[in-house]
Amino acid sequence: MPTNFTVVPVEDSAAASPDPEDGVERVQDDEVAVDSGPETCAEGDESPLEDSPFMSNSDHESSCYDGKNMALFEEEMDSNPMVSSLLNKLANYTNLTQGVVEHEEAENDRVAVKSPQMGTFIGVYLPCMQNILGVILFLRLTWIVGTAGIVGSFLIVFMCCACTMLTAISMSAIATNGVVPAGGSYYMISRSLGPEFGGAVGLCFYLGTTFAGSMYILGTIEILLMYIVKSAALFGMNDLTDPEEKTKAMLNNMRVYGTCCLAFMALLVFVGVKYVNKLALVFLSCVVLSIMAMYTGVIKTAISTPNDTVCLLGNRSLQNGNFEVCRKTEMRGNETQPTQLWELFCKGSLHNSTCDEYFDLNNVTEIKAIPGLLSGVITENLWGSYGPSGMLVEKKEQPSISVSDKTEERYESPARTYVVNDIATCFTLLVGIYFPSVTGIMAGSNRSGDLRDAQRSIPIGTILAIATTSIIYISCVLLFGASIEGVVLRDKFGESVKSSLVLGTLAWPSKWVIIIGSFFSCCGAGLQSLTGAPRLLQAIARDKLMPFLQVFGHAKANGEPTWALLLTAAICEIGILIASLDSVAPILSMFFLMCYLFVNLACAVQTLLRTPNWRPRFKFYHWTLSFLGMSLCLSLMFISSWYYALTTILIAGCIYKYIEYSGAEKEWGDGIHGLSLNAARYALIKLEEAPPHTKNWRPQVLVLLKLDSDLVVKHPRLLSFTTQLKAGKGLTIVSSVLEGAYMNRGADAKLSEQNVKAAMSAEKSKGFCHVVVSSNLRDGFSHLIQTAGLGGMKHNTVLIAWPANWKQKENPITWENFTETVRETTAAHQALLVAKNIDLFPSNHERLGEGTIDVWWIVHDGGLLMLLPFLLRQHKVWRKCKMRIFTVAQMDDNSIQMKKDLQMFLYHLRLDAEVEVVEMHESDISAFTYEKTLVMEQRSQMIKQMQLSKTEREREAQLIHDRHTRSHPAAHKDKVSPSPDGVHMTWTKEKLVSERSRNREASMAVRDLFNMKPEWESLNQSNVRRMHTAVKLNEAVVKKSKDAQLVLLNMPGPPKHTGGYENYMEFLEVLMEGLDRVLLVRGGGREVITIYS
């Protein structure tokens, strides 16, 4: 659980003063209390200071520097403190663990703990011992040894202890890699593997801890009702004869008493954890005394064995709670009388009775329950004895006369007198039941905030505790198997020894030492689970990874997580209602194994990535050990219960995807981020080794955006179209250029990037954003086209919007930039997409119904024209649109054969489209074409000859517009009005004569077309032919595709020289005239679609 840091300078007497009453320093807030002195520091630049892990921004503000020895660095003192100041802050900070220290003072008054004083033994070793040794050791280990045998039990204990030891090694490496605040495994995993893994595993660990509380409470009630106060059962178990009814009554008692016990413990935790902490030593003492009594009893059996006996009928173990004498008959005076045992199996008098057949054929034998270490019983207990529910507990070495060979008939005799299995047993089940006995290794790391030297204490204390408990468990397996009779070991509830705790019969000096000790041990473990689980949930909630958990991050005035405690109690009640310790144990085993798996994964990932920050003080680790521990955890999960394992993985996966979907923006420097960087680096290197094959080609789009005066995206539909084109796949780089110097417009660049990212998020366009500042727009776009992307992940397609108002712009820079972009993409062998009327394109929320996507295939440029409609139709916006392909046939072409060939080509490309061949016969160039060309050249000539100011260009454009669009004379003003800027135009004589001649032409009516032929003859014939092609092709496109949802056209190549920019723009304008949505496509010079598989 995260801890609150309170930095307290030693020499500061103003902010922190000793309290004469309690002698504890009090700090008014959580921030660093530093005397800023009488002088104030000079302000640095406007960039915000990044919070240091050691010093807050308030520290920087107070770190004034007046000396002269370091004057060279005085300008950096605002952001970079002196080393002496930094070391002073590091040497004088402490931390408060959340939930361990009781905050009984007011919320604003925090107790500044001067220095944690807990060492390795008290702070780590003993808490780990207390958490590891518990209910399974006292209630189930003897049964596991008897059922699995010494060999099988040794294997179970070894696997589980090896799993926790390997996990402890990985945890020690993580815990010693820097300061670990309280929070245990959740903090380590989340900060090592990222918020998604951290949240998923943190919740799994929380659920495991909560169900552990259920298990400990059930163990407490089992000890109470079966071994301490047997008469307290609300549902009488002793009066029932049917085993199934008896089991149901037992479960109902567990539910009632378990719920009451849970309510009492939750109330105790709610009142305050200080009471739980004060009782911790008492609970630990109970565990130690119980273990000492157990070992003492084992040693004593080598000298003298206990008097407890087991009664066998044939080789079957009997419940001796209903009879005192283990004989069929006994002498009372001079007469032979039947015993209580005889009455259980027979009806009638002694000489005229009907008895159970097995009872008649077999003798009754009484044997020692604890033969002792030197008895040789170890050989009988080497191997396991698994069986179904209801199977009789038998001593195989004892002679017996079987009644029937049929298994189902063996159990028809009075089952109430025999000891039977209450559940079906197998090796995998025992693994799941035993594993909770080795959990608790995180107790030391959870107290890291209270340790004097956490980086030294956690590894030593945890590993020593696991080694000690492993020795205890392994020795218990050997000693139990060597000193206790096998039928007693397999008797889970001690019914063959007067319903006593099996381990209690072995204890010395009295069985009550074990019974009382195990009772209080289970109580203490349950209280610790109910104390730790809510704080773990509170830590997860305060990280704001999952919005629905934020309510559980709140706490009452003294820091107690009330809402988290209520949820913990509710989940714990689910385990109580299950009511069976054997059913709850595998559940929490899954959650703990999942947690341990990711601790090992975190260590392995960090080690293999070799991140610079991975410098653990604990050196005895290796990535192979972490992978071995991870594999062992996963294996134990599926060995215990494959369906529980899959369920746990599914729960963790759902939490992971939820955190990922909710967009938890946490940057913790986690290993998954480093793993992504390494994987990306490897993939980029592999991609750069060879260009992608045609089959793998897909448009990697560089989107060149234009921003308005408020630095907001001017055409957001360009991003929508990118999303529709990409369908969420491939690379998208969204870029823009700001004109100016970076030192002056750096803040504008960051703001622009934020606005672009916001627009991308709104349009659901996934990709990268980059805004650059350049001295002019042309150079900026040129640099983006050349350098955008990295390695093999570079763009191959450029998407821009058509400059709709290029004729009305102030200067020719707009179309010059556009044409230069076209030329540079062509030179870089990149495809180019130009969208006209981009604001009319559909948004991502629209669904186009009936309509077509028309492709006008004039020249072959790699097949991009064919591929784009297919990609668009993958998106739900264009899915219902049909694809039509038009191609142009000349006089010498066979249009019928062209259509057949094109249909066959589309068939091989696996594309569904209608095909139409448009015949364009050679015709005379129309007068309209000449007129358009004349206007174009005249306008170009004027712009070249005259260096016009803003007002002059507007006037010239208006004169040309009037001359060719109006049929009546335009009024001519002799006076030249001043410009809007207040600057009067200065006319030379030559300009005045030229202007008057143009005005006379503008005032005339439209000339007869034949009178224009002398001017036509002077036109550039190349421009005339180009204009003729644009006009004729536009007529055909408008005729066929005017109602199409989208028209794709081959984009003509740019001029090879820089003098024809405006003519090129005019050709394109004429080509697209009369169409709403047009996408000009120019290929990159390589094939992007193939007919081969």
Automatic annotation (TrEMBL):
<feature type="region of interest" description="Disordered">
    <location>
        <begin position="962"/>
        <end position="984"/>
    </location>
</feature>
<feature type="transmembrane region" description="Helical">
    <location>
        <begin position="458"/>
        <end position="482"/>
    </location>
</feature>
<feature type="domain" description="Amino acid permease/ SLC12A">
    <location>
        <begin position="124"/>
        <end position="301"/>
    </location>
</feature>
<feature type="domain" description="SLC12A transporter C-terminal">
    <location>
        <begin position="832"/>
        <end position="1093"/>
    </location>
</feature>
<feature type="domain" description="Amino acid permease/ SLC12A">
    <location>
        <begin position="418"/>
        <end position="702"/>
    </location>
</feature>
<keyword id="KW-0769">Symport</keyword>
<dbReference type="GO" id="GO:0055075">
    <property type="term" value="P:potassium ion homeostasis"/>
</dbReference>
<keyword id="KW-0813">Transport</keyword>
<keyword id="KW-0472">Membrane</keyword>
<feature type="transmembrane region" description="Helical">
    <location>
        <begin position="214"/>
        <end position="235"/>
    </location>
</feature>
<dbReference type="GO" id="GO:0007268">
    <property type="term" value="P:chemical synaptic transmission"/>
</dbReference>
<dbReference type="InterPro" id="IPR000076">
    <property type="entry name" value="KCL_cotranspt"/>
</dbReference>
<keyword id="KW-1133">Transmembrane helix</keyword>
<feature type="transmembrane region" description="Helical">
    <location>
        <begin position="587"/>
        <end position="609"/>
    </location>
</feature>
<dbReference type="Pfam" id="PF00324">
    <property type="entry name" value="AA_permease"/>
</dbReference>
<dbReference type="GO" id="GO:0015379">
    <property type="term" value="F:potassium:chloride symporter activity"/>
</dbReference>
<comment type="similarity">
    <text>Belongs to the SLC12A transporter family. K/Cl co-transporter subfamily.</text>
</comment>
<keyword id="KW-0630">Potassium</keyword>
<feature type="region of interest" description="Disordered">
    <location>
        <begin position="1"/>
        <end position="60"/>
    </location>
</feature>
<protein>
    <recommendedName>
        <fullName>Solute carrier family 12 member 7-like</fullName>
    </recommendedName>
</protein>
<dbReference type="GO" id="GO:0006884">
    <property type="term" value="P:cell volume homeostasis"/>
</dbReference>
<keyword id="KW-0868">Chloride</keyword>
<feature type="transmembrane region" description="Helical">
    <location>
        <begin position="563"/>
        <end position="581"/>
    </location>
</feature>
<feature type="transmembrane region" description="Helical">
    <location>
        <begin position="256"/>
        <end position="273"/>
    </location>
</feature>
<dbReference type="GO" id="GO:0005886">
    <property type="term" value="C:plasma membrane"/>
</dbReference>
<keyword id="KW-0597">Phosphoprotein</keyword>
<feature type="transmembrane region" description="Helical">
    <location>
        <begin position="418"/>
        <end position="438"/>
    </location>
</feature>
<dbReference type="GO" id="GO:0045202">
    <property type="term" value="C:synapse"/>
</dbReference>
<keyword id="KW-0325">Glycoprotein</keyword>
<dbReference type="InterPro" id="IPR004841">
    <property type="entry name" value="AA-permease/SLC12A_dom"/>
</dbReference>
<keyword id="KW-0406">Ion transport</keyword>
<dbReference type="GO" id="GO:0055064">
    <property type="term" value="P:chloride ion homeostasis"/>
</dbReference>
<dbReference type="InterPro" id="IPR018491">
    <property type="entry name" value="SLC12_C"/>
</dbReference>
<keyword id="KW-0633">Potassium transport</keyword>
<keyword id="KW-1003">Cell membrane</keyword>
<dbReference type="GO" id="GO:1990573">
    <property type="term" value="P:potassium ion import across plasma membrane"/>
</dbReference>
<feature type="transmembrane region" description="Helical">
    <location>
        <begin position="621"/>
        <end position="645"/>
    </location>
</feature>
<keyword id="KW-0812">Transmembrane</keyword>
<dbReference type="Pfam" id="PF03522">
    <property type="entry name" value="SLC12"/>
</dbReference>
<feature type="transmembrane region" description="Helical">
    <location>
        <begin position="279"/>
        <end position="298"/>
    </location>
</feature>
<dbReference type="InterPro" id="IPR004842">
    <property type="entry name" value="SLC12A_fam"/>
</dbReference>
